[in-house]
Amino acid sequence: MSTSTSASLTPQSGAGSSEIFDSLPYYDNDLEQYPHLKQKVEQELAREAGTVPQELHPKVPPPFELFVKNPLLQAEIQRCESREPLGPLDTLRYQLPGPIGVPGSDDEWQSALDNAHAQLEHQRLRQTNLALLQQYGSNAWRIHNHRLEAAATAAEKALEELRRLTTEVNRDRKNFQTRIGGQLTSLETRWTELISSVLQIEMANVALEADIDRLNKKEVELAGL
Length: 225
Hints:
The chain is mostly helical and 225 residues long.
């Protein structure tokens, strides 16, 4: 494995120290060269997938609660989230029942009369709302649609700008890592050449020491003669 592939850990000093993982993903290709390493990485990722904490990042804001001051709308949202069916419409409020008994008490007739007044007021409000809708509804919808189109256009432009910035960042990272990768390759090649030279020098030194020992022994033998 090349020296550039192994991620180096550089702990920072200080109270809030953290570890920096340094690597060149656009340059390193050890996983393609050594399939057994890729298999080990996949096994490690699969093993850690089940141990990832479900807690959100501290910078992620807490979930926003809708309609805190309106319990009816909150109950409706919970019903929609739980996929419960909508209850049947209460048709009794649109009927005009008379007193149950015959001829009926004063309270029963008063209740029926109040219900009739409520139904009449309801129909009057419906007629007023329909008249307002016919007069101003189309323009209100046009304005609303225009605002939605403007918001959608702004969101698309922001998304396109974000994609452009992301592409530039990735391009800069790739160019930087490719340039640094070339330097690393050159340094690794030079390091290999130096190691080879050192080994050759050591082997030559061993050979010279053997020749020196042999000549010393021969000198001693000649001196004895």
